């Protein structure tokens, strides 16, 4: 069922709102504005494991810090914008602060939407805001919302519509990340308990599993698998025949690959990579967000940064931020990888482009 939320009305269109906020940022110079586009500080290093990494990352590539001071960054998505001097802008989630932040080259980062994932009036734990963000085929912002336990879409009229918030009459845990299928309308998403105030032990939890779901354009919801203990990041291969899902379980920190059947359901899973030992050895973070490039390589955040895999599962190397790295997204002309790493927003220039760019 699709329902309007109780968010206060926003300006008449998504585009007008974006333009208004950008103009305000340019004029105000207020808190949160980091107006620089050169000489960004750098962090971390590139860990080269196999020669194939040189095909996609220059040995001298730098991890630039674009903005900082956030509570926990997540869900980056690039918004292409005609007429923008840099081709568009980036939106990302600051989950504990219940907001979406916009970053523009040469302008900096400013709050773009607040609240973003919880519209209640009482306290709602440490992670009430939205998590994964993506754009639908109409260019509208789709949000995985922790506090409101739903997936929503921001309409041109400025309100939000609920796309899904329950399965078989029971509330979802806290939708985490999502991607669209080949039709650009069918939504695949994960539903771990991380947005609940007490997570798995929360008395408000209604489902006794963490699922990977498929939401059809007509609103039909299908549970694809409940075999993963903490499903998190999710992405398709370029041909949409394989679905990758990250599992952010400290005792089983891994990525799974599922063959996609002709009817959109999933076949028998296979282990793509197990990073449990890396986590146990002290590398920061767990398998989380992931993206795929045009050649089918997987760029997946995990213990120690962003892992770069071939489609066959060979680990080429790692973009080591030194921080718990939550998610990534392609942007600019499709060759720049934006990273959300703990309190930072970062980026790195690659030699490839994102799938479908």
Written description of the protein model:
The chain is mainly beta. Helix content is 6%, strand content 41%. The chain contains 2 helices and 28 strands. The protein has helices spanning 14-28, 276-280; strands spanning 42-43, 45-48, 63-67, 73-80, 88-94, 99-104, 108-113, 130-135, 141-145, 150-154, 160-164, 166-167, 170-171, 178-180, 187-191, 211-215, 221-225, 231-236, 242-249, 252-259, 270-274, 290-292, 298-302, 305-309, 315-320, 325-331, 336-341, 344-349. The strands form 7 sheets. It has a 5-stranded antiparallel beta sheet with strand order 1-3-28-27-26, with no helix packed on it. Strands 2-25-24-23-22 form a 5-stranded antiparallel beta sheet, with no helix packed on it. Strands 4-5-6-7 form a 4-stranded antiparallel beta sheet, covered by helices on one side. A hairpin with a 5-residue loop joins strand 24 (305-309) and strand 25 (315-320). The longest helix has 15 residues, at 14-28.
Low-pLDDT stretches are 1-36
Tell me the distance between the termini. Answer: 32 Å
Rounded to an integer, what's the Rg over CA atoms? Answer: 19 Å
Q: What is the tally of beta strands?
A: 28
pLDDT averaged residue by residue: 91
Summed up, the helix count is 2
- Structural class, please? mainly beta
Please state how the strands of the largest beta sheet are arranged side by side. Answer: 1-3-28-27-26
- Main beta-sheet annotation: 5 strands, antiparallel
Shape: globular
Oligomeric state of the chains?
A: single chain
| Element order: H for helix, E for strand | HEEEEEEEEEEEEEEEEEEEEEHEEEEEEE
Question: How large a portion of the residues is in β-strands, by DSSP E?
Answer: 35-45%
Helical amount: under 10%
């Amino acid at each position: 069922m699709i329902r309007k939320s109780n968010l206060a009305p926003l300006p008449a269109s998504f585009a007008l709102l974006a333009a208004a906020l950008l103009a305000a940022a340019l004029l105000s110079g207020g808190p949160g504005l980091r107006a620089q586009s050169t000489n960004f500080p750098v962090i971390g290093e590139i860990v080269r494991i196999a020669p194939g990494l040189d095909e996609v990352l220059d040995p001298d590539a730098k991890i630039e810090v674009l903005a900082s001071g956030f509570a926990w960054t997540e869900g980056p998505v690039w918004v292409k914008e005609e007429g923008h001097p840099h081709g568009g802008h980036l939106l990302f989630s600051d989950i504990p602060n219940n907001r979406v932040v916009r970053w523009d080259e040469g302008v900096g980062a400013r709050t773009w939407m607040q609240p973003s994932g919880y519209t209640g009036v009482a306290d709602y734990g440490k992670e009430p805001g939205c998590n994964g963000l993506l754009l639908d085929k109409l260019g509208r912002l789709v949000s995985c919302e922790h506090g409101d336990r739903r997936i929503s879409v921001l309409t041109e009229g400025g309100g939000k519509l609920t796309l899904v918030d329950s399965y078989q009459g029971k509330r979802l845990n806290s939708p985490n990340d999502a991607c669209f299928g080949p039709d650009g309308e069918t939504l695949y998403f994960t539903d771990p308990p991380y947005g609940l105030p007490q997570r798995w032990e929360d008395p408000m939890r209604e489902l006794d599993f963490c699922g990977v779901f498929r939401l059809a354009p007509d609103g039909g919801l299908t549970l694809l698998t409940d075999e993963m203990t903490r499903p998190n990041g999710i992405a398709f291969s370029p041909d949409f025949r394989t679905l990758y899902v990250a599992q952010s379980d400290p005792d089983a920190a891994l990525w799974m690959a599922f063959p996609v059947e002709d009817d959109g359901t999933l076949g028998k899973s296979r282990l793509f990579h197990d990073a449990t030992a890396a986590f146990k050895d002290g590398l920061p973070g767990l398998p989380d967000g992931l993206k795929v490039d045009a050649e089918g390589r997987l760029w997946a955040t995990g213990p120690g940064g962003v892992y770069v895999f071939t489609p066959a599962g060979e680990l080429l190397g790692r973009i080591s931020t030194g921080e718990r790295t939550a998610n990534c997204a392609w942007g600019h002309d499709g060759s720049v990888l934006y990273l959300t790493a703990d309190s930072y927003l970062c980026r790195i220039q690659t030699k490839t482009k994102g799938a479908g760019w």
